[in-house]
């Protein structure tokens, strides 16, 4: 009976301690309103939200994400070694990515400062 009461006490004590610790931490952070304000990519959040945004910069970001995801998905191909000529397949896909990069460069999509 004593072990049951001890276990019950522990099972009630630990959640109560965690609850009061979380309340203490919450109230400590609640006082600092500057840290609670959202931060968006270096833009001041107190100004108007309708600030013009460079679409060329957005397109450059999309191109980066596309190429980055393709490379992340294609880099493990030589490690799989499912086919004997796996390195040739890998080099062909990387060459296609490089041709796409050159095309974007020649088109001017990577020059977002103009």
Sum this structure up briefly.
Helix content is 69%, strand content 0%. By secondary structure, it is an all-alpha fold. The chain is flat.
Describe the structure.
The protein has a single domain (1-107), classed as NADH:ubiquinone/plastoquinone oxidoreductase, chain 3 (Methane Monooxygenase Hydroxylase, Chain G, domain 1). The chain has 114 residues and is mostly helical. 69% of the residues lie in helices and 0% in strands.
CATH architecture: Up-down Bundle
Low-confidence stretches: none
Secondary structure category? mainly alpha
Gyration radius, in Å: 27 Å
Number of strands: 0
| CATH level 1 class label | Mainly Alpha
**Outline type:** flat
Membrane topology: Multi-pass membrane protein
Function: Core subunit of the mitochondrial membrane respiratory chain NADH dehydrogenase (Complex I) which catalyzes electron transfer from NADH through the respiratory chain, using ubiquinone as an electron acceptor. Essential for the catalytic activity of complex I.
Catalytic activity: a ubiquinone + NADH + 5 H(+)(in) = a ubiquinol + NAD(+) + 4 H(+)(out)
InterPro entries: NADH_UbQ/plastoQ_OxRdtase_su3, NDAH_ubi_oxred_su3_sf
């Amino acid at each position: 009976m004593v072990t049951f009461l001890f276990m019950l006490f522990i099972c009630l004590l630990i959640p109560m301690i965690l609850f009061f610790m979380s309340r203490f931490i919450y109230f400590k952070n609640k006082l600092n309103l500057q840290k609670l304000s959202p931060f968006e990519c270096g833009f001041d959040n107190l100004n108007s939200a309708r600030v013009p945004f460079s679409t060329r910069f957005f397109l450059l970001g999309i191109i980066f994400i596309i190429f980055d995801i393709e490379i992340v998905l294609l880099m493990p191909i030589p490690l799989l070694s499912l086919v004997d000529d796996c390195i040739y397949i890998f080099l062909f896909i990387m060459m296609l990515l490089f041709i796409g990069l050159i095309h974007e460069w020649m088109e001017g999509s990577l020059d977002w400062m103009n």
